[in-house]
Amino acid sequence: MRASLFLAGLGLAAALSLPAMAFQDSDVVIAYADGYMGTDHQFHAWEHRANAEEFRAHHADQYRAWRHDDPRHHEGQ
Prior knowledge:
Layout: H1 2-17, E1 28-32, E2 35-38, E3 43-45, H2 49-58, E4 63-64
Parallel strand pairs: 1-4
Antiparallel strand pairs: 1-2, 2-3
């Protein structure tokens, strides 16, 4: 019993120490500084800044360095 509680505590500590990836890269249509447009056609805010930075590092062609609602930038123009 003690060993299982100890292991459960370790798992919880590990989960809390790392930023959670609430998305899969394949779920992102286009990403912005403040979040991303998903394949579900909904805007999702980044849960952690680290998620945005990692996505930008691996998918620069899908990342826009401005907010999704910035009136100075219009997709498709």
